[in-house]
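Figure S4 source data
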Amino acid sequence: MSAGAPLNTGTSLTTGAPPTPVVPHGRLVLLAACLGLFMSFIEVTAAISTLRALQVDMQVAPADLSWVSSTYTLVVAACVLSGGALGERFGRRRVFLTGTVLIAAGSLVVASAQSYPQVLIGRGISGLGGALVLPTSLALITTTFFVDLPRMLRYIAVWVSVSGVGLAVGPLLGGTLLQTWNWRAVYLVNTPLAVITIAVTLRAVAESRVPDRPLDLPGQFWAVLGLSTLVYGIAVGGRSGYDDPVVVTVLAVAAVSLTALVLTERRRAVPMLDVRMMANARYTAALCVAAAALFVFVGVVFLEVLFLQRVRAFGPLDTGIRLLPAMLAFVAATATAQRLAGRVRAGRLLAAGSLVTTAAALVLLGQQPDGSYAVTALGLVLAGLGSGLVVAPSTAAAFEVVEGPQMSAASSAVTAFRQVGSVLATAILGAVLAVRFLGTLPDRLAAHHLPAPVIDQVVSVARSGGRSTGRSSPQVTGAVGDAFTAGVHSALWVVAGVSFGAAVLAWTLLARRLPKAATTRE
């Protein structure tokens, strides 16, 4: 194709690559992709704001309550790799639309639920929809603007910003609806959004697919089994202990399944996840940094929602308002990263952003039950700034080391790694928090000079996943707050470690200039 050829010619830059769909409404394509992503991410944090009200209304046992939010993320993690493969085989637009419908349908099931099992079924349906929407929403952008790399990367930066908006707006929107109506209204938000998304998609997005792509059923089986058991084992182990025979068995199944996934994908001619591309250290580093970026940002939002609600006793709306600094900083940093993309190497942006998020976690370690919100606000701003400098450039870093025909596979892999990182954030950090909280609670209760029977009662309630019943006792409230804060601090140390590791990885493998001949081709 000549340098002066128009964007939507139906041809590609690389001979033999699939033709770029002819889409005359580029901004509407971006809007459709962003709406789908927003729906997916708002499901993550909006649900957290409903837990207390749902527990009272449904009379849910405390130990079972966490699965209202965990079911969605568990299904997303298990099926996100399959979502990208199904999009290529059956049509990215078709799978994206199917996922959008499933997210809304699942939300309607929850909103109309008359029992706790029905809530979980609805969350699972939405999770399946999220697993279809997340990889295909990015694929809509990459396949449409493949012949215009600068525009594609600019649109990816906008797409990434929407994930931060969804995470931060979730608690704010949920709190507003809870204060105005009830918890069911929170799950109705995605219904009108789905209608708009479907209308825009049908109007602007052309279908694209790889019709002869095999489904790779063995790879999908091992991916679903491995990722679901990994997340489940980590989450349950944080409550029941990692020496529990069930947890040990589940994690062993996860290890065997993920190993089988790698071995299976290495042998397939057209794999769902091309692990052979990971032989390139730079490409693998970009995937790991992408996963770390969402791990850190989702992890910080997750921990701060818990800290502000359970320790500082803010309501859902007040919590959402206090999370706004992270969202605003994330959007601003993403825009800044886009402007710097042509002048600063992606690896350097990744290293700098990861160092900023490391500093954010360290600042948030200064939070105390009776401390100033200024510490929280500073930490959230740094978390948003650092994450915004990492998330979008991680895609560019992956694209720097792949050839044209491999860009679609790289796009799917980056999306999958990001989502697995975000799901592992809630699973791992929730487990770390729970272990430290339960381990510290007896000593904190004793330090407040509470009698042994009260200590045993409060610890028993906490181990079952409940909340302290001693709300009338300042000593119990103070001890629980101290122990929970200790758990949040331990989880923040994990965030800091992951973020610093990503900074080292980005600087050592991605910051140097790539020789023109270097690709992922073996």
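Figure S5 source data
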Amino acid sequence: MLDLLIQNGLIFDGLGSAPVRGDIGIKNGQIINLAPSLNIPAREVVDAAGLWVTPGFIDIHTHYDLELEIAPGLSESVRHGVTSVVIGNCSLSIAIGEPQMLADIFQRVETLSHRLIAKWLQKSVSWQTPAEYLQHLQQLPLGVNIAPLLGHSALRAEVMGLERSLKVQPSKFELKVMQRIAADALDAGFVGISIDMFPWHRMSGEWRGMTIPSQHAKFKEYAMLADLCRRRDRVFQVTPNLQRLASFVDILRMGVGIGKRPLRLTVLSALDAVHNRHLWKIFSPILYIWNHLLGGNVRFQTLTEPFTIYSDGSVTPLFEDFPTGAQLNSCDSRQERQKLWQSPAFRRQFRQEWLRGKHRSFHRDLNLITIVQSPQSSWEGLSFAEIARQHQQEPVDFFIQALQEYDTDLRWVGTGANDRLQPRLALMQHPYILPGFTDAGAHVRNLGYYDGALSLLKQAITTKFMSPEAAIYRVTGEPAQWFRLDTGVLKVGAKADVVLLNPDALNQPISPQVEILDPVLDGEPRMVKRGSDEIVSAVYINGVRVVNQGKVSDRLGCEKFGTVLSPC
């Protein structure tokens, strides 16, 4: 007898094949029958007539490492059809290292609340090796499948000590220790290694304001880790320094595959930036040269919707882009920020840096930055530039005045990339650019793109720029194949991670972000999506229904459904 029989659905196999109508038989968490019609007794029979049956979606860029320890169900992603996630991105992981040190590396980069960090520290468990961390993950009541990368910042800080990892280069002995630990981690089952060069990523705690350990490495150290991944055909994830073009040369050098096995390299990120409207056009020729002429195996990542970021006064990841903004983010209280603002020299320097055109990662155009919450309710819905004109002020001067006066009582929003439809579709369609980069689990107060796969499907349906089967392949079988994960397909013998979708509900715009007080985070605010409940009819992980008509099962996070995925 089957545990579950899904009948009459339109089945997408996750490999890009044309869909077929049929039945799926599931037993012991595995697909054991797949045919046009099955007449087999089952404990549960689901009529999927009118629905699409797809593999569970794969989110290739998340920062769920800490949330897994607190709420391992990851319900925000699961409710949108995600059944597998890649963690350990941007050099950040908790696979090795002392908990407080890891918290100091994580907290500011991912803008996690002090309360959330404190809760994790209270229950944190120290493991001695990355292999022990994998064993620990397997013991959690995982909601989804987890594919972990080993984070270079954690590795470097553990081997060198946090202070030295932020100030000096490793000795030959320390480099060899890093090499041995990283090799052992890959052999234990990590899907790859991540490094970080992006200067927005800074420390909290004792060394607050300094950039995280991975950014202090030289090419030799990065290349050593890349070579480990190359030899084992594992993923090497890189976050480049957008302000230092030489970082791209280093990445290119590591990713060349002429005369040797190509490095399985994934780079953040391919976006249509508001501050540089021509930048998105360079990705296609670069990737053609890299993969076709230089023997590479490179995949950029892109977001499937406009990159919109919410900010609270002076507390925002956008301010990590320039020195005075980073100073404000280093403050632990409103009083500390007020002290900075009271200095005419600081205000003058902030103004100069905000207006400076070079090396910016965000447009800083106050005509495009809107106030969403304010003690002055008449400001809400208007841009800073519009209100400045009403007050006959320069926009940047009004911006500084508003931030100084209202601090985090002033909430504002701006879109930095992917706001234009045609460039966004071109990036999502490119064979060497993977739809992903959701940052799920990070910046919970600033952004929420947990429904990235559904956003791609919506645009495929409404614009017809891609067939449904091709769009589904892009977020299931394709990333599974490239990351070498045994998931993302519907076939006999596969793990029964299945999503039932209502195709009629896909014909709608991308869902807006909304803020909730999330009980999973003990009432902390989180930006989320809520436009998927009518789309996602059901989600099954390991053959068990964990979402039904938009309602997340209470079993999620209490029982184990997912597993740790090792490269296949």
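The longest strand covers residues 2-11. The mean pLDDT is 95.
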